[in-house]
Amino acid sequence: MFSNLTLLAQAPVLNIQLLLDGLFIGATFALAAYGLALVWGVMNVKNLCQGDMVILGGFIAVTLSKHGLHPILGLPVAIVALFIYGWIVYRLIICRVIERDLFTSLLATFGLAIVMAQSMNLIFGPEVTTAESGFKTLVLFDGLVTVAEIKAVSLALAAALATVVIVFMKRSRMGQAIRATAQDARAARVMGIDTDRVYQFTYALNAAICGAAGVLISMIWTIQPFFGISHSIRAFVIVTAAGFGNLPGVILAGFGLGFAEQYSGFLLGAQFQQATVVGLLVVVLVARQIQQARHRRAVA
Amino acid sequence: MSQPLKLAALYGAIVAAGIAAPLVFPEYTFQLAVLWIMILFALTWDINGGQMGYNSLGNIFFFGAGMYICALTQVGLYYDIGEYTASSGEIKIDYTLAQYFNGLALGIVLAAIGCVALAVVFGRVVFGLRGPYFAIGTLGVALASAELMGTWGWVGAGGGISLPVYPGDPDQRALLYYFLCFAAAIATFAFLRWLYGTSFGLAVNAIRDDEEKAEAMGIHTTRYKTVAWAISGFFLGIVGAVFGNMTGFIEPLEVAFPTTTFGIFMVLMVLLGGKGTLWGPVIGAVLFHVLKEVTWTYLLGWQWIVLGALIIVNVIFFQQGIMGWMREKFPERFGLVVDRRTTISSQEDG
User: For residue A14, what are the CA distances in angstroms to A18, A144, A149, A213, B192?
Assistant: First the structure.
């Protein structure tokens, strides 16, 4: 099981490969997790169909690239499509669960996740696919480290998108309204902010971010209709670990999860990669619980 | 007829129907056994989800754990487990009737004990979590156990284990497992009916209504929560052990820890029937099972979409469930169907 550990010790340069891959994939995790942190923080909705929105974005890119449109050009298409999709989902489902207890939103979005995964399975088929970007692969360190150029491009795109979103949240009227609503929805309403519209926009924005993350994942990794749940769990791991008001924390946790998955996949075998994600979820929750218990004792 | 008499007649009719059903419709024995399992699922989920207000998405964990404990006991009693799983079907298990029943009985007992132990251990881990964190945490436990079992070579990893073959008539085997499921479901119902009438039922209801206040009133909440979870684990472990033998082959993702099928059905059935009531889960389970069989037969390929839509509609528009709706509609007639003591204790949440 640990034969690869000695391999790592003999060829430390392999670490660079793992770290790079973790960085590239972690950036997309962080993007999707940021969307979840937004929805969770602003409207207190635990969006369990997060991962399925990611996969939907990926399938849009894959389908467009089959019809000759480059996946990078598919990115704006997926963003707009998912924005509209999020808008509709909010009107149909989410606006009815916001005021309800927490389990309601969890279960309703879980139901939506099942519907989405199965619909994608019927529409796009159950095969594991990837969007062909046609970029070269760079070979470094005498062939020990390979970097697909598209991964670097995707990292840059993820960074650019995150910057746009952050600037939007800081500068624009809508961004300010979103932050005001997150702080105190009632006070925001008193100040004349239409919180329902803010919620609607936030949810649609989250869907758009997921769509963008999905396009990037479809270019650098693989997608399949039923991969959504593991992306949702990743987002939950990251947000729970970082806390939803903590943007740098979300980004760091996203990269951390990327590294953890790459290393466990390399050291323990690919079949452990999935187990690592859910295992980390449990670990993070337990750690938070211990933290809270200490907090409760301190308060008492 | 007076009310206790009517209730007795109702229970008698259900038990009689349960005994007669596989004899009248022998070709549906497996489906009917699954129906009893579904009822048990719903009842055990409701202990935590309905009566105690802790919505778990990972109760299926005990189902799979019980299944594996029982299977390993049955095989390990007379064979080497590692060799058996590694041979991938090369070694054939050939038990006499006595050996088979020894293994099965011991397996079921160990599954029940093992699941109670696991509930106590994991109770310490998950019961500090509240609300949605609890739901996600339990979901994580169930998913993680499925993944870990899938990588553990000694128990057959993703390839699973075949259970010992019943050394007798197949029809007899079907009936045996039907009656085991039937007995488990009836026992669960009877136990919970008694339990909800005791101070334990009141204590878990108090935890649901306001955990801080319950604690302030001197209720040892962690202990009650753990015991409630252990009760779920006990019955789920037993039925998991039985279900593993019923299908004859177990593997981690689809049979033992089916988080997205049985695991979510539990929640859905209770919500459909009305949570926090004794009869709600039973009604929900029966209705859901029939609905599921119909969609699985006539809408193949679309069944999951129908199921997901059902979850959404149920959660958004009909969260009180059938029993909750009836309670609102005909409060005065309610004593007819439901044990009065549970009605009173669970009416407080409105």
Answer: 6, 7, 18, 27, 58
Burial class of residue B12 in the structure, from the number of CB atoms within 10 Å of its CB (0-12 exposed, 13-18 middle, 19+ buried)? exposed
User: Given this model, what pLDDT does residue B235 score?
Assistant: 95
pLDDT of residue A164: 93
Position of tokens 């070694």? Answer: B91
CB-based contact A118 B308, cutoff 8 Å? yes
H or E segment and range at residue B162: strand B161-162
- Judged by DSSP in three states, B345 sits in helix
DSSP B254: I
Is beta strand B161-162 parallel, antiparallel or unpaired with respect to A137-140? unpaired
**Is B309 in CB contact (< 8 Å) with chain A?**
yes
- Which of A88, A233, A278 is the best residue to mutate to test the B interface, defined by the most B CB atoms within 10 Å of its own CB? A278
Cα three-residue angle B131-B137-B142, rounded to 5 degrees: 135
Q: Chain B: give the shortest CA distance to residue A224, in Å.
A: 17
Q: Which of A116-125, A233-242, B147-156, B167-176 has the lowest mean pLDDT?
A: B147-156
DSSP A93: I
- A148 phi, psi to nearest 5 deg: -70, 130
* Residues A126/A228, Cβ–Cβ less than 8 Å: no
How far CA B292 is from CA of A237, B41, B263, B297, B298, in Å, comes to 32, 15, 15, 8, 10
Residue written as tokens 């007379």?
A: B78
CA distance to B104, B144, B161, per residue, from B79 (Å): 14, 28, 13
Spatial neighbors of B293 by CB under 8 A, at least 6 apart, are B31
* B327 or B247, higher pLDDT: B247
Domain locations along chain A:
2-299
Which residues have a Cβ under 8 Å from the Cβ of A44 and sit 6 or more positions away?
A98, A102, A105
One-character DSSP codes across B294-324:
HHHHHSTTTHHHHHHHHHHHHHHH-TTHHHH
What gap in Å lies between CA A56 and CA A59, rounded to an integer?
Answer: 5
Measured CA to CA, the distance from residue A250 to residue A244 in angstroms comes to 8
- Which residue in A176, A222, A184, A211 sits closest to A89, CA to CA? A211
Answer yes or no: do A281 and B267 touch at CB < 8 A: no
pLDDT higher than threshold 50 for residue B91? yes
Chain centroid offset of residue A2 CA = 30
Question: A286, B125 in Cβ contact below 8 A?
Answer: yes
Chain A: residue nearest B260 by CA?
Answer: A114
How many angstroms separate the CA atoms of A108 and A20, rounded? 37
Asked if A115's CB is within 8 angstroms of B316's CB, the reply is: no
Q: Under a CB-based contact definition with an 8 Å cutoff, are residues A131 and A62 in contact?
A: yes
Architecture of domain A2-299: Orthogonal Bundle (1.10)
B106-141, pLDDT tens digit by residue? Answer: 999 999 999 999 999 888 777 777 777 788 888 888
Helix/strand number for chain B, H first, E second:
15, 2
